[in-house]
Amino acid sequence: MLAENDYPISVEFDPQSGIFTPCPKLTPRYVSDLKQMFHDQQAVEEIIHSGDRLVYEIRYHPFKTSKSDMALGVTRIFPGTVGNEYHMTKGHIHERDDQPEIYYCVHGEGFLLLDTLQGEFRAVPWKAGVITHIPPMWAHRVVNTGDDLLVFVATYHLSAGHDYEIVEKQGFAQIVVKQNGKPVFLPNEK
Questions:
Q1: CB atoms within 10 A of CB 109
Q2: What CATH number is associated with residue 151?
Q3: Whole-model pTM?
Q4: Is there a domain that residue 12 lies in?
């Protein structure tokens, strides 16, 4: 006899809006949630004091069975900047160093930033249709450099865990800023 959670589960997904149903968990991230990630702290404080602003949101669906675990995450990053730095996800590295993740960009444009936090850095140009395998021990963050919503789908094992603290303290090797209407990479001064 199968356990209740051992049956197939499907969700209905709209790639343009980045919304799927049913969605058991939604996590919004405002500028105030990311304040240590952005370099222009004066711009951060001004945005927070003028009512804060939604930067991105993540919809989650855990798929845990009696023999396995997987998760679906869909992130919607809204267009915009804080100072001249583009909206981005918080970024994380997995707690378990044997756990990869797959990201699939389905709408919008930007960059997937990858960093070992020991000196290796990559910036993958992203647009709808790009799928990236993120090997274990690479921190990852997505930056929306477009004028539209950026939507991506993530799949990973729940047991991988997320470590946001090391990224918050150290940051990535480079940041992405808007100069003359275009994205430019600058060294991170942290």
A1: 19
A2: 2.60.120.10
A3: 0.95
A4: no
Residue 14 counted as domain residue = no
Residue 1 lies in a domain: no
Residues 4, 173: Cα–Cα separation, whole Å: 45
Q: Tell me the per-residue pLDDT of 75-101, one tens digit each, with 9 for 90 and over.
A: 999 999 999 999 999 999 999 999 999
Length of the chain: 190
* DSSP sequence for 9-69: ---EEETTTTEEES-SEEEEEEGGGSTTT-S-HHHHHHHHHTT--EEEEEEEEEEE-SS-E
CA 63/CA 6 separation, integer angstroms: 9
105 and 129 in contact (C-beta within 8 Å)? yes
Q: In what order do the strands lie in the sheet with 109-115?
A: 121-127, 109-115, 139-144
Beta strand 139-144 with 109-115: parallel, antiparallel or unpaired? antiparallel
Give the tens place of pLDDT for each residue, 3-25.
Answer: 888 999 999 999 999 999 999 99
Domain of 176 in residue numbering reads as 19-187
Rounded to whole angstroms, the Cα distance separating 136 from 138 reads 6
Residue 37 maps to a domain:
yes
Helix (H) or strand (E) holding 169: helix 165-170
